[in-house]
Design brief:
With about 800 residues, the protein is α+β, with helices and mostly antiparallel strands. About 40% of the residues lie in helices and about 25% in strands.
Length: about 800
């Protein structure tokens, strides 16, 4: 019960601070309780402050989170719209257009039709002629499996439906095919005779011929009427049958002019992937031939021929025009790459050609075939003109390649955002590679790679660069693009690719060439820029987006990783400027941030750096924000655990202290009780011993005798009033001494007259009192409880009486002196 009371007293003292504890134990407990209470109050205050901070943070950040969510939904919807638009574009049929890389339509292509592969025959559907190649052994070699085209056979055909003859019975059909039944002949044994093999074979042949005659063409369903077919026969110089003379028209003089613009996608056999093509144009069956290896174009698969060939001939006649493409070989025979044929005679005989295409023939894309007629060896762009007569023909078209322009391209990388972190700790050592790739005007591949500087310890996916790269280009180009790749620099292993994307520069290059040809190279119109345009910026619900991104100069380009298609790995702000080299030399700029720093002026990037003056900040940079957060979290957890352990230690210490104090107090109480019991036991034993030997009665008698003797002596000597007066004075002196002790010495009140008289009286009474000192001693001796446990003590007590008597006998002498 005592222990519970003590612990309860400690608890009340710790929490209330004003309640009374259980005596000394409660006081001891209250002295150690405040540290635990302080820690408890610190915990309560910290929890309230943390809750207040979280509420304030949520209240302030909620609009930002809502705006960011709206922007994300908007971006997602925009991406979906772009994907849908791309799908619809892919579904649309691609329209063939002529593109020479300059962005302008050449003058000789104005109002001229462009016909893709295989469409001219469809356009000229009124001429049903075809050319069939005649093959022979290659090089006229004997027993050779190789073959080559030795010539062509041209023929005109008409397709009609077949009608089968009708017979009343199967016997009639059999009689029509095999003839009337023959007389049965028997051999000497009476069996039917078999025909001889020659006779049987002849009968089978006649039956097959008659079988074919069962089907007759229906001329009403012919693709070409009989009159038109006869007209074509007459124009081509054909004849009806062997018994009739030639019915063909007389040949007429014509002039054929062929323009070869470009070759495309030639298939080389060299290991380099390129070839040195040249063109050979010939008319089969004649000595007309143009072109040789001296006119080759080096190292290209898309040669720009831009050549004109013209010859005079007579049609109908040798009306084929053949184009052969060869690859020049320096140390061996030239390699055949492909060929194509143009039937000039068929076009001359076509009414639609003469009425619609004769004055302005279309640009045809002819497919190159190998010697066996297989396709897939490239394409050839040609224009074929057919003019009547040999004199007074129109002038040839002036065809020439587009002008070559030397261009400088300036690429400025400003900043990056939302980049995926590759390093441990949530940071990147970020930099960008800029790779210009494409095919030049001869379809030769070219590439050039440059890099920005490195933003070390780029945090939160944000990088700052303000870096300029300069490229030198030659236009026009068949294809050109800028590949932007983001990398994380690693000092030990290979750099990590974060993402990449391409910017198609073909449109900008074409626009530059077009402006150069229109305004001149030094015109401001010849500066083509790919930069920020407020009109192209999509509407955003986030009012803080422009504030967080800062002022924009370039366009944001998203990065994508090949293994994660459709998932953005970050964005980079980039600006591209194309201008003629002459303008660039007039107003040069420095690479990176070197002087002259202009167009635009690039400031120093906003980056954090390591510093010996800030070791904690440098350590945080090296670790990265994620690692710092993790370490901070771990430190907070460890600190919280430490505070919890220390709080538990203090609390347990208080509890143990209270337990120990209660145990000690309990032990003390038990010892006091045992001491009291021991004293009581001793006292009882003494009383019992006295009673047993009779000393208690003797002691009472002695005390009684002493008191009576004292009283008699005082009465006999008359000192009773003096002693009373002495006691009164002594009590007053004691009171005065106590008052003087309580008050300051300087403020002590002087004694009154009464006190002085009392003092004088006490001084006077001193000699008188000196006599009863023995009496006082006797009184004191008598008042002191003395237990005579032995015979010696009893004798000593008895000896007191004579001494007192002797002292008392001297009292009268004292009074006499007084």
């Amino acid at each position: 019960m005592a222990r519970c009371a003590d612990i309860g007293g400690c608890a009340v003292t710790a929490t209330g601070g004003g309640g009374g504890g259980g005596g000394n134990d409660g006081g001891g407990g209250s002295s150690d309780a405040p540290p635990a209470a302080s820690i408890f109050f610190i915990f309560i205050f910290s929890a309230n402050a943390f809750c207040f901070f979280i509420n304030s943070f949520a209240f302030c950040i909620f609009p930002l989170i809502a705006a960011a969510a709206a922007a994300a939904l908007e971006a997602k919807a925009s991406n979906e719209d772009d994907e849908e638009l791309n799908r619809s574009k892919k579904k649309q049929k691609k329209v063939a257009t002529f593109d020479d890389g300059s962005g302008n339509v050449p003058e000789w292509m104005n109002d001229r039709m462009l016909l893709p592969i295989g469409t001219l025959e469809e356009e000229l559907g009124d001429v049903a002629m075809t050319n069939v190649p005649i093959y022979r052994a290659e090089g006229f070699e004997d027993n050779s499996s190789k073959r080559e085209v030795g010539g062509y056979v041209k023929f005109c055909y008409s397709v009609s439906e077949l009608r089968r003859k009708y017979f009343g019975s199967s016997e009639e059909e059999h009689e029509y095919i095999h003839g009337p039944p023959e007389i049965l002949k028997l051999d000497y044994l009476g069996n039917p005779k078999k025909d001889k093999p020659a006779v049987a074979a002849k009968k089978a042949k006649n039956a097959a011929i008659m079988q074919n005659t069962l089907w007759t063409p229906d001329k009403t369903t012919a693709t070409i009427s009989e009159e038109e077919f006869l007209r074509i026969q007459k124009q081509a110089g054909g004849y009806l049958n062997d018994n009739q003379p030639m019915m063909g028209e007389q040949p007429r003089p014509v002039t054929v002019r062929a323009y070869v613009i470009r070759g495309k996608d030639l298939r080389p056999i060299d290991q380099s992937g390129l070839c040195d093509p040249y063109l050979v144009v010939s008319v089969p069956g004649t000595n007309i031939k143009f072109g040789n290896s001296k006119e080759r174009i080096d190292r290209t698969c898309t040669p720009w021929f831009y050549k004109t060939f013209e010859y005079k001939t007579e049609l109908p006649g040798n009306g084929l025009l053949k184009f052969d493409v060869f690859d020049y070989e320096k140390y061996s025979s030239d390699v055949f790459l492909g060929q194509c044929l143009v039937d000039v005679e068929a076009r001359l005989l076509s009414e639609r050609w003469n009425t619609e295409m004769g004055d302005r023939p279309p640009l045809e894309i002819k497919q190159l075939l190998d010697k066996h007629g297989n396709a897939g060896f490239g394409e050839l762009e040609i224009i074929v003109e057919i003019h009547d007569g040999h004199d007074n023909i129109p002038k040839a078209l002036v065809i020439q390649p587009p002008p070559v322009v030397e261009v400088e391209m300036r690429v400025c990388v400003f900043k990056a955002r939302n980049m995926v972190n590759k390093d441990v700790g949530g940071k990147n050592d970020l930099y960008f590679k800029l790779n210009v790739i494409g095919l030049d005007r001869t379809s030769s591949r070219f590439t050039e790679t440059q890099s920005t500087d490195i933003h070390w310890f780029a945090r939160d996916g944000v990088g700052s660069f303000n870096y300029r790269n300069i490229f030198q280009l030659t236009l026009p180009c068949n294809r050109i693009a800028l590949r932007v790749s983001a990398y994380d620099k690693d000092l030990i292993s290979g750099d990590d690719n974060i993402g990449e994307n391409k910017i198609n520069l073909s449109k900008m290059c074409k626009q530059l060439i077009r402006n150069v040809s229109t305004f001149g190279e030094m015109s401001p119109e010849c500066v083509i820029e790919h930069k920020y345009d407020a009109n192209e910026e999509p509407f955003s619900l986030n009012p803080f987006k422009s504030m967080m991104d800062g002022p924009m100069q370039g366009k944001w380009l998203k990065m994508f990783h090949p293994t994660l298609p459709g998932e953005s790995q970050g964005e980079v702000e980039i600006m591209i400027t194309l201008l003629p080299r002459k303008q660039a030399e007039e107003r040069p700029v420095g690479k990176a941030r070197d002087l002259p720093n202009r167009d635009p002026e690039l400031k120093e990037p906003d980056r954090a750096h390591l510093s010996l003056l800030n070791p904690l900040g440098s350590l945080a940079l090296i670790m990265g924000p994620d690692m710092v957060k993790k370490v901070t979290f771990v430190v907070l957890i460890v600190g919280s655990l430490y505070m919890f352990v220390m709080s538990a230690f203090f609390i347990i210490n208080d509890i143990v202290d209270a337990e120990i104090t209660a145990t000690i107090n309990e032990k003390r109480e038990m010892e006091q009780e045992m001491e009291l019991e021991r004293e009581n036991l001793i006292t009882g034993a003494e009383v019992y011993a006295k009673h047993a030997v009779g000393l208690d009665t003797l002691e009472e008698k002695v005390h009684k005798t002493l008191n009576e003797t004292e009283t008699k002596i005082l009465d006999a000597t008359g000192l009773t009033p003096v002693l009373e007066k002495y006691n009164e004075v002594k009590s007053e002196i004691d009171q005065y001494s106590n008052a003087a002790h309580d008050a300051a010495v300087s403020t002590t009140v002087p004694p009154s007259a009464t006190t002085a008289n009392a003092t004088a009286t006490a001084a006077t009474a001193v000699p008188v009192a000196a006599t009863p000192a023995a009496t006082t001693t006797v009184v004191a001796t008598a008042a002191t409880p003395a237990v005579a446990t032995t015979e010696e003590e009893t004798a000593a007590a008895a000896a007191v009486t004579p001494v007192a008597t002797e002292e008392a006998s001297t009292v009268p002498t004292t009074e006499a002196v007084t």
